[in-house]
Specification:
By secondary structure, this protein is α+β, with helices and mostly antiparallel strands. The protein has 2 domains: 8-92, TATA-Binding Protein, CATH 3.30.310.20; 125-293, Hypothetical protein, domain 2 (Endonuclease III, domain 1). It has helices spanning 18-28, 77-87, 94-101, 107-113, 125-134, 140-154, 173-178, 188-203, 214-222, 229-240, 251-254, 266-273, 280-293; strands at residues 8-11, 34-37, 40-47, 50-58, 64-69. It has a 5-stranded antiparallel sheet, covered by helices on one side. A hairpin with a 2-residue loop joins strand 2 (34-37) and strand 3 (40-47). Helix 5 packs antiparallel against helix 10. The longest helix is centred in the middle third of the chain and has 16 residues, at 188-203. The protein is globular.
Amino acid sequence: MNLSPAPLLLDYQPPWQWQQFHGHFALRALAGVESLQPRSYARSVLLDGQRGWFRVQVLDDQHALQLHYSKSLRPCLPVLIARVRKMFDLDCQPQQIAAHLATAPQLGALVARNPGLRLPTAFEPFEQAVRAIVGQQVTVKAAVTITGRLVTRLGEPLQFADAAEIQRLFPSAAAIAEANLENIGMPGKRVQTLQHFAAEVASGALQLDLRDGCAALIERLCALPGIGPWTAEYIALRAFGEADAFPASDLGLLKAPLWGPVGIEAKQLKARAEAWRPWRAYAAAHLWHNYSEG
């Protein structure tokens, strides 16, 4: 018996590449919270107090994703749709962005090869911020392993008859702030950074939003101990899909094959990226793709 409502169609303007999103989630999916299949992605959500799940399915014959969701999320469907559209960057205008970036020296060749690259972003900003802090100075694989331990220890268990693979919520800010995180696999200072950040969010002292603009959010984040420009810019890009966010010191951006065998210095890259405004995050997407290929 199918307990979930009829699926919806979420349209987009092509080109849009499922392979890009599949590759992104393949490296980062958290077991129990997320489920990635060859043609679909699913995850747990907490929206307006409602616990549930959604799944997006790729359609071969339409420029749209099919959205399946749990009956529990029906009261907050408009919010769910908006968040999923942002997560998969479905409102992007790819031709406009590609036309701007295609004129940039060197970068133009990457854009011509992959004109449909988008910004995969997080469903939940707090979750992405946690991932960014955990991921400081470690590989993506190591960060996923450590974040998975947080989920196992602190994530609220779930049980859905129509989505058995979705088994936990990502831990709340209060749960992370108050937990004993001994032997979690992070240096003590980074644990302190993470728990202080979580406590600020849990208390409401830190607002994780763009109401005052991206620069104000980055300033708020950099004022916290242990959070520097890379982490703050990365949160703006991955948590909110901020189109002009640019973590210039990111290793993948600096070591992209486009720059040759020795790479490029962060200061040089930041200066070069001025010509890519207001789409620097999309330029980063092309450089990360280039890095993964090389």
